[in-house]
Amino acid sequence: GHVQLVPPQNVTLLSKDFAMILTWAPGQGYPPDVTYTVRYESQDRLDKWLKVPHCKNIPRSFCNLTCALSSLYVKVRARVKAVWGRSQSLWVKSQFKDYYSDVELAPPVLTLSIRENSIHVSASFPLPACVENLTWKYDLNLWEAGSEDKVILCSVSQQKKYEGYFRKDTVTINTTALRGNYCFSARALYESITLKHSEFSQPVCVLLNHKG
Q: Which stretches are annotated as coiled coil (predicted)?
């Protein structure tokens, strides 16, 4: 005789910023203290729904599955149900996706270290721990800023590309011949079934060899 909750809405498995995340919306008329439980199955073991310990009886309406997946190369789907006291909803399933081919990348964060005749550029990635070992790379762009007051409106003149560096590589650029305001921007790169890349990061601009 328990009330059955309506199922969660808009259940979607999506890839964003290197992570595989299940998202959903509360059903109509949910009480404020409703919780959710998530499980997933992989295409090579259908009908075996695996528990996700960190997404059991959670109050939020998303679950980061990335490091719970048994394989990054097999398509998976997830399901979620709502629980309130002794009442619960039916499970609602997402579509199938796999990390390897569906991963969406975020731009790296650049760190610049300026020396006397060189600049060292390194990129850091907001990666989940379980995907650290995949072959992430980045492309780096360098150009002289235009004469506008806002250096974000950089005119891409004399642009140089440094392509395909591994994630942990530092790019060293000789700055002896560079005079003025230079901007750096990078994008993450990943080769799965196709070559994927993120948007370019916001430019970081520095004044080089300035006398004055």
A: none
